[in-house]
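Page 37, continued from 36.
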């Protein structure tokens, strides 16, 4: 964002000062200089040509031609200095105005004094001084001009240079100088206020433009701007990530022919503004089209949204009502379950029970505990709070987590091994939710991952610009049939499991706009991958 430099254009001690953009101030000075060059040239040309009777140099030809040549020479020399900016603006402006007053007064005297009409040219100098130097210095310049005219009249009267002198005319001319100076001062102030307002508005527009660009580039939803010919004008980072491209495509067809056809269909029928884009090895993408009319042309906005995020929003509202229902059911089950468990404990205290009775009591207690675990998991799911995401430096967080997990579960330090790709990887996630997810994954790996065959790896890496935590174990490979139901509630292949651990972990991940998945590594080992938002690429959810 560029901001014009503001130049305080007069250091006059009598002046309060005002500022205008430096570029415009120098331009005004060049315009006044051009006026001086033209005026000086006219003086010299008219003096030598003399096409008709004229007052030019009528009283003192030598004074007129010398003053004209000096005036033109100073103007030309000042031109080189102003164009090259060899001296400061203030010095140049004062030099031009003061030499104007002095030399124009001499030219007026050479042409016959105030009655020649040459004094009116001083009004241009006074007005220029008000614009170029400004402030109360404009009044000071008007005073100098008035004094110069009065001094010329006094000198002419004292030396009897002219037949008549006119002090009244000199006074009126001086009064006009002050009026012109005052008006130029007011005009300069108004110009300054307008320029400052325009500058503030320009800065505001530039800031809003940068802000809108930042928001668009960091939205989680993909945004692509195209024209009617499907030529891509702009694409934010999220859109490139969703369609798995590294650089902005030239045409919609470069992304997908299906997307191009859907856009063309929408142009013919505005009702068809929704589409579902299916890309190889990618999640389905929800597409929406919008018109962006401008003053001179029409542009079109293509909004891309990961279908998983789209479904998540629907699922959150469903889970909110389902959570209330499951919580009430769980409370109702816990009451009779507590009575059963208590009765079983009382039965176990009866003396001389047979081994069969003891076995039946153990079965009662075992299944009471199992049902109680299921109820606790359901209550935990129903009480799930909204995520409070924060930036977490994952390597140090995982090191502390593994230390606490090993102590809590009496696990030796060699069972889990952290393999970070980088020490600086960070993500946005609720730390308490991340702990619950890691607890489920690590407990499952400890229980089913056969750690006796080798360490369980916690791998930290970057995958498609997202930060991933992978838990890799040595357990049996999950079959294709079981993989389809792996994250469903109450699905388990263990007689002692509740089937809610992975489901809760997946729900917590989606609540933090993360993704939990299962796949096999290149060496055919089971791997649970938690894909998190990279904190180095901030994302705005709208």
């Amino acid at each position: 964002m560029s901001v014009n430099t503001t130049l305080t254009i007069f250091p006059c001690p009598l002046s309060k000062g005002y500022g205008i953009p430096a570029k415009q101030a120098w331009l005004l000075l060049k315009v006044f200089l051009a006026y001086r060059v033209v005026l000086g040239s006219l003086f010299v040309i008219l003096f030598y040509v003399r096409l008709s009777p004229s007052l030019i140099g009528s009283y003192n030809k030598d004074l007129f031609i010398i003053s004209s040549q000096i005036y033109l020479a100073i103007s030309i020399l000042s031109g080189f200095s102003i164009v090259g900016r060899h001296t400061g603006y203030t010095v140049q402006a004062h030099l031009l105005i003061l030499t104007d007053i002095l030399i124009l007064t001499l030219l007026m005297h050479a042409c016959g004094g105030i009655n020649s009409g040459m004094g009116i040219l001083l009004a241009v100098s006074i007005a220029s001084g008000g614009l170029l130097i400004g402030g109360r210095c404009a009044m000071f310049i008007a005073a100098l001009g008035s004094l110069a005219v009065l001094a010329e009249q006094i000198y002419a009267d004292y030396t009897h240079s002219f037949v008549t002198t006119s002090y009244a005319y000199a006074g009126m001319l001086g009064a006009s100088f002050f009026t012109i100076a005052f008006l130029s001062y007011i005009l300069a102030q108004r110009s300054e206020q307008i320029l400052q307002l325009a500058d503030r508005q320009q800065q505001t527009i530039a800031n809003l433009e940068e802000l809108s660009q930042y928001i668009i580039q960091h939205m989680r939803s993909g945004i692509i701007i195209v024209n009617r010919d499907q030529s891509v004008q702009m694409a934010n980072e999220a859109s490139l990530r969703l369609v798995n491209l590294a650089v902005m495509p030239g045409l919609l067809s470069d992304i997908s022919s299906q997307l191009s056809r859907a856009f063309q269909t929408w142009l013919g029928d505005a009702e068809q503004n929704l589409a579902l884009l299916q890309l190889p090895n990618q999640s389905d993408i929800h597409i929406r089209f919008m018109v962006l009319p401008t003053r001179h042309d029409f542009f079109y906005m293509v909004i891309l949204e990961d279908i998983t995020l789209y479904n998540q929003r629907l699922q959150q509202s469903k889970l909110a009502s389902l959570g209330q229902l499951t919580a009430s059911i769980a409370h109702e089950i816990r009451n009779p379950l507590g009575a059963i468990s208590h009765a079983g404990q009382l039965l176990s205290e009866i003396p001389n029970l047979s081994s069969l009775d003891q076995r039946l009591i153990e079965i009662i207690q075992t299944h009471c505990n199992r049902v109680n675990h299921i109820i606790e998991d359901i209550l935990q799911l129903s009480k799930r709070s909204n995520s409070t995401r924060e930036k977490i430096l994952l390597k140090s967080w995982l090191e502390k987590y593994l230390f606490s997990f090993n102590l809590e579960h009496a696990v030796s330090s060699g069972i889990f091994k952290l393999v970070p790709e980088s020490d600086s990887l960070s993500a946005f996630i609720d730390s308490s939710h991340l702990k619950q997810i890691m607890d489920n994954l690590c407990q499952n790996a400890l229980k089913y991952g056969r750690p006796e065959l080798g360490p369980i790896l916690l791998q930290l890496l970057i995958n498609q610009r997202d930060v991933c935590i992978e838990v890799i174990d040595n357990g049996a490979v999950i079959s294709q049939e079981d993989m389809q139901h792996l994250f469903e509630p109450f699905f388990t292949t263990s007689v002692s499991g509740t089937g809610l651990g992975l489901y809760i972990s997946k729900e917590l991940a989606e609540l933090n706009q993360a993704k939990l998945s299962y796949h096999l590594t290149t060496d055919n080992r089971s791997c649970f991958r938690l894909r998190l938002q990279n904190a180095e690429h901030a994302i705005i959810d709208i």
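Residues 6-209 form one domain. Flag for discussion at group meeting. Residues 1-19 have pLDDT under 50 and may be disordered.
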